[in-house]
Amino acid sequence: MLKGYHILTVTHKNTPLSLMGSFIFNEATEEELRAKLEALKAAFGLNELMYAATCNRVIFLFHTNRQVSGSLRQAFFNFVNPGLNGELIKKHVVHHEGDAAVQHLFRVAASIDSLVVGEREILRQLREAYQRCLDWELTGDKIRLLMGQAVIAAKDVYSNTRLGEKSVSVVSLAIRKMMDRHLPKSARILMIGAGQTNVLVAKFLVKFGFSNVTVFNRTLEKARAIAGKFSNGKALHLSSLEDYSGGFDCLIVCTGATRAFVDEALYSRLLNGEKDSKIAIDLSVPRNIETSISEAFDVKLIEVESLKKLAKQNLSFREQEVGQAQELLDTHFEEFKIVFHTREIELAFRQIPREVQAVREKAMNEVFRKELEHLDENSRSLVERMLVYMEKKCTGIPMRVAREALVAKAS
Ligand SMILES: NC(=O)c1ccc[n+]([C@@H]2O[C@H](COP(=O)([O-])OP(=O)(O)OC[C@H]3O[C@@H](n4cnc5c(N)ncnc54)[C@H](OP(=O)(O)O)[C@@H]3O)[C@@H](O)[C@H]2O)c1
């Protein structure tokens, strides 16, 4: 019964991330994307279609009564990208069908198929993709039911396993280590570099209420963009770092420079004579702060290698939770079969009330019309009320019995 569900997907598991862009729609605007998806749905006779693309996965989830053969898969991805060669499609596209498609979606939503197991971002991405395809009227009842159960299953996994418990992001681990030092909210923070990683660092700093942040960068506008997020934020050009005399409590360095330019001499100048204990965080690869500063000065140096080691340990902790998550997903898969079949029965039984009503009306107006004409007004009204009562009570019976049979079969 689940056999109309299909997923055609390309994922980080068997495809380099650099190739992922070849399997997605590269349409410039939302309207163009919508038009492409509508055309795809029509061209391949799909009843419903949902499309989701992230940096390490593309999913085409659809429902169709057609056979999805190898040649259809080729034509499908050539529709997405006419330049894709057949060998690449054969090698990278994975097809899940029926039960396997449903189970795959559950695994993706619960993030046990992710590159970083337990990252919840994927559930948000799936929900947004679904909402967009729903708004564009590409999806219908089948995908609605499946997405509904996938969200319930994923939330169950996130709440009842320790899958997402320990952080595996180097930035969040760094900030956590910084917070362990109980810095006051007014602490002076010097940030060097204004790239993507430090933008993320800044988000955490805002979240934890820090306000006094001075950002140094080669490109001043990028430093300004970060500094602007703090009530007491300042942006300075990197060339003025050597002359900075404001002191600091925490130094965060993350640039694309390939040498440890924060050496003992520069660090000493930045201290500006202060002797109390400091925190220095180096997120750069290769490192930008010389490790010898931790011997020469009173400083807690948080550097990327130890954070990466911790992230790896946390990831293997999460992976140990996968078995338990899978058990929960198996339960949700069984539940989904009941939900799906109940809905099928509901749809099939939808005309029963109308048909029973027609029988009643025929009985009153044709079959027993003459006999009813001989009854007085009160008796005729009583007969009619009895028939309406019977009609209401009886139309629910087949649905209830079918539902009970389904549940009994499943347990
Ligand atoms: N630990 C992790 O998990 C992780 C994750 C991602 C990245 N990283 C590391 O973090 C560093 C920055 O990554 P990102 O993603 O933030 O990069 P990004 O967005 O490309 O930004 C690079 C930043 O470094 C600056 N920069 C580049 N070359 C420089 C140089 N020679 N001297 C001084 N500043 C320089 C850039 O300044 P302009 O704005 O003026 O160009 C910019 O602020 C890299 O070392 C990367 O390997 C670590």
What does this 3D model show about the protein?
With 411 residues, this protein is an alpha/beta fold. It has three domains: 2-166, Beta Polymerase, domain 2; 170-304, 3-Layer(aba) Sandwich (Rossmann fold), CATH 3.40.50.720; 344-406, no CATH class. The chain has 17 helices and ten strands. The protein has helices spanning 17-20, 30-43, 70-80, 86-92, 99-109, 121-135, 141-160, 170-179, 196-207, 220-227, 264-271, 293-296, 304-320, 322-348, 352-367, 369-373, 377-410; strands spanning 5-11, 48-54, 57-63, 94-97, 189-192, 212-217, 232-237, 250-253, 278-282, 299-303. Helix 5 (99-109) crosses helix 7 and helix 15 runs antiparallel to helix 17.
Attached small molecules: NADP nicotinamide-adenine-dinucleotide phosphate
What would the average pLDDT be, to the nearest integer?
94
Beginning-to-end CA distance, first to last residue: 18 Å
Strand content: 5-15%
CATH topology of the largest domain: Beta Polymerase, domain 2
Largest sheet, if any?
6 strands, parallel
Low-confidence stretches: none
CATH class type of the largest domain: Alpha Beta
CATH superfamily of the largest domain: Glutamyl-tRNA reductase, N-terminal domain
* Helical coverage, percent range: 40-55%
Instruction: Please identify the structural class as seen in this structure.
Output: alpha/beta
Number of helices: 17
Tell me the domain tally: 3
Give the SSE string. Answer: EHHEEHHEHHHHEHEHEEHEHEHHHHH
| Shape call | elongated
**Using DSSP, what is the number of strands?**
10
Task: Supply the key terms.
single chain; about 400 residues; alpha/beta; Beta Polymerase, domain 2; Rossmann fold; 3 domains; six-stranded parallel beta sheet; four-stranded antiparallel beta sheet; 17 helices; about 55% helix; elongated; binds NADP nicotinamide-adenine-dinucleotide phosphate
